[in-house]
Structure formats: C-alpha cells, structure tokens
Design goal:
Layout: H1 3-7, H2 12-19, E1 25-29, H3 35-48, E2 57-61, H4 64-78, E3 86-89, H5 90-101, E4 112-114, H6 116-129, H7 139-151, H8 156-161, H9 166-184, E5 187-189, H10 190-203, H11 205-214, E6 217-220, H12 228-237, E7 244-248, H13 263-271, E8 276-280, E9 282-283, H14 288-298, E10 310-311, E11 319-324, H15 327-344, E12 352-356, H16 362-372, E13 376-378, H17 388-401, H18 406-412, H19 422-435, H20 439-449, H21 454-472, H22 478-488, H23 491-496, H24 501-516, H25 523-536, E14 550-554, H26 555-558, E15 563-568, H27 585-599, E16 602-611, E17 613-616, E18 619-622, H28 627-630, E19 637-641, E20 665-668, E21 672-682, E22 685-692, E23 696-701, E24 707-710
Parallel strand pairs: 1-7, 1-8, 2-3, 2-6, 4-5, 6-7, 9-10, 11-16, 11-19, 12-14, 12-15, 13-14, 15-16
Antiparallel strand pairs: 17-18, 20-21, 20-24, 21-22, 22-23
Helix pairs in contact: 2-3, 3-4, 5-10, 6-7, 6-9, 10-11, 10-12, 14-27, 15-16, 17-18, 17-21, 19-20, 20-21, 22-24
The protein binds a DNA duplex (15 and 10 nucleotides) through residues 61-66, 89-92, 113, 115-116, 134-135, 190-191, 193-194, 222, 225, 254-255, 257-258, 260, 357-360, 363, 380, 414, 417, 419-424, 535-538, 554-557, 559-560, 575, 578-581, 590, 594, 615-619.
Length: 714
DNA sequence: CGAAAGGCTCTTTTT
DNA sequence: GAGCCTTTCG
C-alpha cells in the first residue's frame, strides 16, 4: 500500500496520531472515533513509510478478540509481512516471554496457567493449611485482595511490610501460603504472568536489554484498562527507545474493580513530559442525538477531563424511554419493538443488541425471545472453557504433562469416582506436605507401602497406573491422547451417564476439535501449544457475526462493539447504577461510564427501559428510575409508559383465536413442525409447551408465538 | 465413601 | 431461584 493510501482516509487528528512516530504519544480516543483505524494505520505507516521492520513492533491489547481483529486488519493492510509483528494480549505476550526466558528466574518452562476458578481452589487450600475459617474470610475476597496486591507489583514479602489492618494481616498469611502452593504445582496465575515478567526484566538486565532492543515501537490499546503491573511492563519494554503509543478513553474505563488504574493515563504525561497528546473527538458512529445524550450523562462526572465530541452524522430520532410495570412487560416490549424495527426500518436481527447490568437480567429476556421464536445469541453465560467437563479433561491433560500439577490432580483424582474420598485425599496432602513431595509422588508412595486399607491402596495404585500409562502415550497427538484418556479413565462413560450427558459429551468432542488443530506439530510441542491456548482463551470464538440474531450482552462486554439499535434494560436505581455503588462516589462515576459505554454503542436507535416492578433473586422489588436518565436533556427524549398506550405487544394470532390441546400438531415460523405437549393457563393467556421435530421442546405464549395448527402426519 | 438434603449468598469478569 | 457448600445418613 503506498503512503498516500495509508493517510488519505484519515482526518487531521487521526493523521497526526499516525504520522508522529517518534517518542511517546497519548491518544485520547472518544467512542466511534476510529481508534482501531489509527492503530492499524500507524503500524502500516511505520513499516511502509518509515521502514521499520515488523519484527521490531509490538501491539498489545486486552482481549484475544481484539488481538485477532487487529491482526486481521493489519494483514489486510500489509499482507504477509504482518505475520512478523508481535500482536497479542498482555497475558499471551508475557506467557511467551516467560516460557522462553523464565528459566533465568528458576521457572519451569512448562508451567501451568491457573485461571480464576483454579485460583479460588488454591486459596481454599491455603486457608485450610493456615487453619483459617473460610466462612470468616471469604475466599473470593482474599482472591481479590491477592490479585490487587499482584496488580500493584507487591510480592508477599513486600506486602507484609505494609500491612496495616487485621484483614491485611490475614491476606498476607494466605498470600504467602497461596504463592507457595502455586510454586509447588509449578503454576502461575494470570497476575503472575505480568508480575513475573516485570521481575524478570528488573532482575535480569541481559533479558531486559534483549527485549528493549527488539521492540523499537510499542502500541497499547485500551490503555485506560491497564493496571499498575501492565504499565510498569510497557515502561520497561519501552525503556530504550521510548517510542510508546498508548490509546485509550478514560470515559470508558469500567474495569477499576479489576484494578485497572486511571492514574496510568495521568502518570503517562508525568513520566513522559515530552509526550504528544492527540484527542480524537470526531465520532463516525452515532447520530447527533445519541452523542448528545451520551455527553449529557458523562459530563456529570467530576473526576474527568472534558472532551468535545462531535459528529457530522444526522440528528436522528430521539432516545426512547420506555416505562413498564414488570420486567416481563419490558422484555415483551423489546421483542415486539425489534420485530417492528426489522419490519419497518429494514434492520436485521443482528443489528439489534439488548444490554443489561447483571447477567441475571438475561433470563426474562431469553424467555420472551424463546416464546416469540426470535433468534438471539447470549454472550457470556457459562463459558465453554469454564464448563466442568472441559476443565476435568484439561486437568487430566495437565497432570499427564506435569505430574507436579497438584491442583489438577485434586480435581480429577476421584472423577469419575474411584473410592478416593476426602479422607484419603487429606492424608495424601498431609503426607505430601511433611515429606516435601508432590501429591502424585505421595500417592505412589502410599500405594506402594500398603499401610492403608487394601481397598484404598488398590484404588491409588490403579489411578497411578492410569496416569503413568497416559503419560507414556505422549507420542500421540493431543486429540488422540484425549481420546485415550476419556476411554481409559472411564470419563466418557461417567459423563454420558449423567444428566445432560449427551450435551456435555458434545462439549468434550468440541474440545477435541480444538485439540485436533494441533495435529501437525510434534506431539510434545502440540500438547504444550494446545494447553497454552486454552489457558489464555476465555471462550471459543463467538459465533461469527454473519448469523442473523439479536445480541444479548452485559454492558461490560459490549465495550468495543457497535449496533444500529441498542436497548438498555433495567434503567433503575439499584440496577444501573448498581446498589453496591451507592455509597462510593468513585464507583458511582464508574456506573455512569458504564451507562455511557452502553449508549455510545448505538448508531441510530437507543431505547432506555425501566420497569416499575422487578423480581430479582426470587423476591420482587420496586425501583425508582435511574438517575442517569434525568441527566439527558428532555428535548432529546421520547418517553412512553406502556400502560398508557398498549400493555401488550401486537398479538400475532389476533383474529383467529387459536385453540390448542395436548396432542395437536402445529407449525411455528421458526421452529417448524411440532406436537403440543401441554397447555397451561397463565394470566390472560396460555402457555403452550411444544415438542418440535428439530428445535427441541419450547415454552411458548399462545398470544405471541407465530403458531399455526396443522394436520397430523406432516 | 458417596448421595441426599438443608443453609447461605447473589455485580461487572478482557486474561 | 439457583448454585455452592456443609452436614447428615445409609
């Protein structure tokens, strides 16, 4: 691509951000201001115009998705040379550095990476060993405190020097123990990936020099989300050339509870006084109305640098405020309004997104979508790699690769049941601790000594034989090893015998598919690569965006996305803003930013919905409208109360009062043919349960579902 | 040892 | 209302 093409599609501010290549640079990028374009074009400019080698450029993101998208766009711009760039998440880049250089600090290059669930389990063990009551000291709170310490680069020793409260005293004791357990298991948690890399660079000048010399240019996306450790890391990396370009938007900082620290943006200007600052304020995404409403809300924040966002886009339609009595009504409105948008405004389902503060809100929505038969995809929910069956199989693989991985052993030692229960496990742990060996070694010793009851000793011996046999099979490809493992261990049989066994077995098959992508590599390497990938990936790639479905998503997850139409449900005090933020002004400002992020996702249509009554956690609650709605100038709003106009969305079956009984055959617009299983009267309506030939069994509302009675035998 | 039953808690969750 | 943990019983 010639130089002109790199710069021509850019506005003056964007162009400045791309052309100023030397020295530190801070780009403050409003929503929809072409941030990704600036980053990718800057990289292209560095290579094509400035002659920088791709090998010498690093671009860091937070999510795998962002990294993948950036990689794709760079490949479009640069072709195959893009492959030599370092593009990845903080954690993936650190993991790679630690695997190749970590031995300098005594790290096994095959260290396991423990995720949040694993961490929690290790913390529970730490509590137990420290003789502390998990009821009194909640493991999640400790996990959070330890993670906070690590994010601030505090090792247990450093932490102990600054403990002030009793709680911190406890944290320190657990943190020490926790770190010890990780070390014995030759495992790192996510925070360690960052912390250890920073320490590696700090204590090993040769390694640091190597990387500092390599990375002449460094770019960081979503800089407002970095924590202290991440900022320290990029400062180390940029230590030699100081060509560091960070891009972010303080108004979209919504992860302070993950220890993202807005002060990094302020520190940046202090640490690099020569830094160039560019503001991207032109918005290419939203209508004037939407942008103004968003600005009205965010401008109420006190701790903030003012920005003047503007757009050349049309004024567009007002922001819709919709008030309903119940969340069922709210959900029904969303569904029927989307139907209307699709029919009258020529939008597709995939152009619409419904956003909410807490996952629990998704259920009411899902029910309406299912009843109406409207296609939707729920983002989040139970993530693939967090499913029990996936974690079990991965634990087997991890243990096979590294017998010192105590946590993985604990996870699967009695799955499926082998008669090795709590008591035996406790004795194993005790023995491992006193003899200073791994659990697996303790298990082998105990099996050999035959001091325990023969039945137990036999179980232990059998398990150890299984693992040894599997460990000997590492010349198999990861997929084949997985096959052998689920057969030999009896895991397949076990999982299929359980509730939802088929579905869970399907998940294991899906994992095997992922594993088979590594069949080309030499087996040992392939297993490492596979485990590395699944450790650092939180989900299988979300179904490709081509499928025409409505998106259901939390406000947090929506950051970085855009949709023609956005519905934000639960615009109520207690939900958004969440009640936990009521007594902390800083948290309240973050809630406001969350609302801002939601609204600025929209291109054309915004709906803010509130319900008078809402049932959450079983009991019904009454919430006043969200304070954020009052911040929007009234002239931008169109408000309607559902109870004034129409309480019910237009019924599909109007006119031809459909009467159904169990046994009737029906046709549904989306689900096809099915048989009515049951009819239950509900408030002024009927709930029909239909077993569809293809789509499975669904609950539908008679008045809403596009159902037609058909003759049996179709 | 393992299944079943009661009691407690419940925000967001990039890696 | 559900999931997780602990307790209890066979």
């Amino acid at each position: 691509m010639p130089q002109m093409d790199i710069l021509t599609p850019l506005n003056p501010a964007q162009r400045e951000a791309v052309e100023t290549v030397a020295g530190p640079m801070l780009i403050l990028a409003g929503p929809g201001s072409g941030k990704t374009r600036v980053i990718t074009h800057r990289v292209a400019y560095l290579i094509k115009t400035c002659g920088v080698k791709p090998h010498n450029i690093m671009a860091v993101t937070f999510t795998n998705k962002a990294a993948r998208e950036m990689g794709e766009r760079l490949e479009q711009l640069l072709g195959r040379t893009a492959g030599a760039l370092t593009v990845g998440t903080f954690h993936a880049i650190c993991a790679r550095i630690l695997r190749s250089e970590g031995e300098a600090m005594g790290l096994n290059p095959r260290f396991a990476i423990y995720d949040a669930d694993d961490q929690l389990n290790v913390i529970k063990q730490s509590l137990e060993e420290a003789n502390l009551d998990p009821k009194q000291y909640s493991p999640p709170a400790l996990q959070s405190a330890i993670s906070a310490a690590k994010s601030r680069l505090l090792t247990p020793e450093e932490y102990s020097q600054r403990t002030q409260s009793y709680f911190e005293e406890i944290v320190q004791r657990v943190y020490e123990r926790y770190q010890e357990l990780l070390r014995k298991s030759e495992a790192l948690d996510f925070d360690d990936l960052l912390l250890d890399t920073v320490q590696l660079f700090e204590n090993h000048a040769a390694v640091r020099d190597k990387y500092q010399s390599r990375y002449v240019h460094i770019l960081v996306d979503e800089f407002q989300d970095t924590n202290l450790a991440q900022y320290a890391l990029i400062r180390q990396l940029a230590g030699k050339y100081k060509n560091i370009c960070v891009v972010g938007d303080p108004d979209q900082s919504i992860y302070s509870w993950r220890f993202a620290d807005l002060r990094n943006i302020l520190s940046f200007e202090k640490d690099y006084p020569e830094a160039k600052v560019v503001m991207l304020e032109q918005n290419y995404r939203s209508t004037k109305t939407i942008l103004q409403a968003a600005s009205d809300i965010i401008s109420q924040n006190v701790r903030r640098k003012p920005k003047e966002l503007w757009t050349e886009n049309e004024a567009g339609s007002p922001v819709n405020v919709v008030e309903s009595y119940s969340q069922e009504e709210e959900s029904q409105f969303v569904v029927s309004e989307i139907e209307r948008l699709v029919n009258q405004k020529r939008l597709s389902f995939k152009d619409c997104a419904v956003m909410y503060r807490v996952n629990a809100q998704s259920r009411a929505l899902e029910e309406s979508f299912i009843r109406y038969g409207m296609p939707y995809r729920l983002i989040g929910g139970t993530r693939f790699y967090h499913r029990q069956e996936i974690k079990d199989v991965l634990a087997y693989l991890r243990l096979i690769r590294n017998p010192n991985d105590n946590l993985s052993l604990i996870r699967i030692i009695n799955v499926p049941g082998r008669g090795i229960g709590q008591g035996t496990l406790g004795r194993l742990q005790e023995r491992a601790r006193t003899q200073g060996v791994s659990l697996y070694q303790a298990l082998k010793d105990m099996a050999a000594e035959k001091v325990s009851p023969p039945r137990i000793a036999q179980s232990l011996a059998k398990f150890s034989a299984l693992i040894d046999e599997l460990a000997r099979s590492q010349e198999l490809s990861p997929a084949e090893l997985l096959d052998k493992l689920v057969e030999d261990s009896g895991y397949k049989e076990y999982i299929l015998s359980k509730e939802d066994g088929e579905e869970r077995w399907e998940n294991v098959r899906e994992l095997r598919n992922v594993a088979s992508e590594y069949n080309e590599l030499p087996p040992a390497e392939a297993l490492d690569a596979f485990l590395e990938k699944v450790s650092l990936v939180s989900d299988t790639d979300e179904l490709d965006g081509q499928i025409d479905m409505v998106t259901l998503i939390t406000l947090h997850q929506a950051k970085g996305l855009e949709f023609p139409a956005v519905f934000i449900v639960g615009m109520e005090e207690g939900i958004l803003p969440h009640r936990k933020s009521f007594d902390d002004p800083e948290e309240m400002e973050e809630e406001r930013r969350l609302c801002y992020v939601g609204i600025t996702r929209a291109k054309k249509h915004v709906y803010l919905l509130r319900s008078y009554r809402r049932s959450l956690f079983g009991s019904g609650i009454v919430n006043p409208p969200s304070r954020f709605m009052e911040d929007i100038s009234p002239n931008l709003l169109a408000t309607r109360g559902l109870w004034e106009t129409q309480t019910k969305p237009a019924a599909v079956n109007e006119g031809e009062a459909l009467e159904l009984t169990a046994g009737d055959c029906v046709y549904h617009n989306r689900f096809g043919n099915g048989v009515v299983v049951d009819c239950l009267p509900t408030l002024g309506d009927q709930e029909i349960i239909v077993a569809f030939e293809r789509a499975g069994t669904k609950k539908l509302l008679l008045s809403l579902a596009p159902l037609r009675k058909i003759e049996p035998g179709y």
